[in-house]
Amino acid sequence: QVQLVESGGGLVQAGDSLRLSCAASGRTFSPYSMGWFRQAPGKEREFVAAIHWSSGTTYYTDSVKGRFTISRDNAKNTMSLQMSTLKSEDTAVYSCAARLSTPRWVPDIAGEYDVWGQGTQVTVSL
């Protein structure tokens, strides 16, 4: 029943920053974990970052470590991805996803997530 909606995408120059947000609908929202994935033209869907909802433990793919920060606001049922020093290689459609209840830490496997947002376009120009 829960729905996820991303926002914050846009067109920026290399080196700029963007903050993506993912809002969950419903009166209550307490997933086991949430993650961000991205898909560039001609590329497979790629894991970006994940966060364990209750503890805040995070996990990142190597290409974004040190540049991206995933966070959540449990009370507001929102998750964010702060992206800094953006590169052209970061251009993609970014989607948020939630693993709702199953208490297993499988952050980087898309098929392990239960609910997905529609995605938001991030374009980084040179």
Number of strands: 11
Helical amount: under 10%
Percentage beta strand: over 45%
Task: Give the distance, in angstroms, between the N- and C-terminal Cα atoms.
Answer: 40 Å
Please tell me how large the radius of gyration is. 14 Å
Structural class: mainly beta
- Estimate the global geometry from the Cα principal axes: globular
- Mean pLDDT rating: 96
Number of helices: 0
Helix/strand order, N-terminal first: EEEEEEEEEEE
| Residue windows where pLDDT falls under 50 for at least 5 positions | none
Biggest sheet record: 7 strands, mixed
Descriptive notes:
With 126 residues, the protein is mainly beta. Helices cover 0% and strands 48% of the residues. The chain has no helices and 11 strands. The protein is globular and about 40 Å long. The N and C termini lie far apart (40 Å).
Supply the key terms:
seven-stranded mixed beta sheet; mainly beta; 126 residues; 11 strands
Protein topology:
Elements: E1 4-7, E2 10-13, E3 18-24, E4 33-39, E5 46-52, E6 58-60, E7 68-73, E8 78-83, E9 92-99, E10 115-116, E11 120-125
Parallel strand pairs: 2-11
Antiparallel strand pairs: 1-3, 3-8, 4-5, 4-9, 5-6, 7-8, 9-10, 9-11
